[in-house]
Amino acid sequence: MIPVTVYPNINILYAPTEGIKVVHNVGLCIVLWDVTKLEDSYIFPGSGASHTVVHFRYVVFRPFMDELLDWKDQKF
């Protein structure tokens, strides 16, 4: 079972609260889909932090070259 605390930390990195983030060579990050695997945690010398490799899937928008988007901003 994946700890619940992993999800907010990944979302902070790829989709900050002030908007959606564009990651170079990845695309427009929309939302975290799921966490598939957590590997063993390590604590490196001189660091008190736990370092863990996390495998996850993210919903990403990658437009084609010269693709145009048309939308209307709706007020609620």
Structure commentary:
The protein is mainly beta and 76 residues long. It has one domain: 2-Layer Sandwich (Dna Ligase, domain 1), CATH 3.30.1490. Helix content is 12%, strand content 39%. It contains one helix and three strands; from the N terminus they run αβββ. The protein is elongated.
What is shown here, in short?
The chain is mainly β and 76 residues long.
Topology:
Blueprint: H1 6-14, E1 21-23, E2 27-42, E3 51-61
Antiparallel strand pairs: 1-2, 2-3
Subcellular location: Nucleus
Keywords: DNA-directed RNA polymerase, Transcription
Number of helices: 1
Question: What is the number of independent domains?
Answer: 1
What is the CA-based Rg, rounded? 16 Å
> Helix-strand pattern, N to C?
HEEE
What is the architecture at the second tier of CATH?
2-Layer Sandwich
Keywords, please?
39% strand, 76 residues, elongated, three-stranded antiparallel sheet, Dna Ligase, domain 1, mainly beta, 3 strands, 1 helix
